[in-house]
Amino acid sequence: MATGSLVGNIIQDLGLDIKRLRSGRARIFTEDGSEYIGLNAEKGTLVVAKRIDREELCKQASPCSLHFQIILENPMELHRIDVEVTDINDNAPFFSKKEYNFQVSESASPGARYSLESAKDPDVAHNTIQTYKLNPTDNFKLNVVARSDGTKYIEMVLHTTLDREKQEEHRLTLTSFDGGNPQKSGSVKINVVVLDANDNAPVFSQTVYRATVPENASKGTVILRVSATDNDKGANEELMYSFSHHTDGAASLFNMDPHTGEITVIGVLDYEKAKHYEIDIEATDKGGLADTAKVLIEVTDLNDNAPVINIISLSNPIPEDSAPDTVIAIHRQGAV
């Protein structure tokens, strides 16, 4: 109510008249010296002397009242007055923070609960907080729990599983509404960061890798580099490359860098001894999930051996009258 607004008529309420107010020098007495209510002795009315803030005066207490006395002299009279201050919806709900941050593992099970701070509203009764709303509700729902003392607390409940690989962060808005008319509201942002769980195995870029290498390749020669990816994040996406356990002879000729997937020559290759190698490889993440692939290495020949003729059968001596096409020797040609 504005300053000067009528609060009550003490002539009607107390059965006094204007003459008695004047002769008795009527005045208002308050124990705390507050001057919220003034007396207009000329009209016999009580008026608002200064702005009244119910929330400042009584906090959450209800009802909220002003207590004072009207004093008259000659003879002395005391009249106790109680003025109830009713609430208006002059405050909107608010949260103590602008936003709240949560970290939730993607392995969290539906039904997991996360406590939220309730909003505050200095108003009382229907003008204070009545409802809450969470948006969106694709993965989380709101649960409002009433305590025995009448207060409420709110929880954010996971109702569908999270998948970090599809969505790393969820942005929600929690809104609190009061029951006033017009209705007032206050909102707070909620950020949910989805923590990675090792739910994805590595995947090689190819199921079969092919490479060729000359038989005279020196030690340290890079043959090829394989690669795999893991959709997990952080430590769960770090991979280690290796030959499979059942790769036997190739391990003495080739090496695989566990971090880069690079395959190099470490032994002496010989086309004449082995023309190709078939190697099984693995990529393993730190959670133990793995993928396998195959590497086919072809060794190319070099002209590193002179021809050799081996005589199997020889006619010696040869008669001078031997006919054309007479077989004089049988030999086998090879290489060292």
UniProtKB/TrEMBL annotation:
SMART domains: CA. It is found in: Cell membrane. Residues 39-95, 96-204, 205-309 form the Cadherin domain. Keywords: Calcium, Cell adhesion, Cell membrane, Glycoprotein, Membrane, Repeat, Signal, Transmembrane, Transmembrane helix. The keyword Membrane applies. GO terms for molecular function: calcium ion binding. One of its GO terms (biological process) is homophilic cell adhesion via plasma membrane adhesion molecules. GO terms for cellular component: plasma membrane. It is a single-pass type I membrane protein. This is Cadherin domain-containing protein.
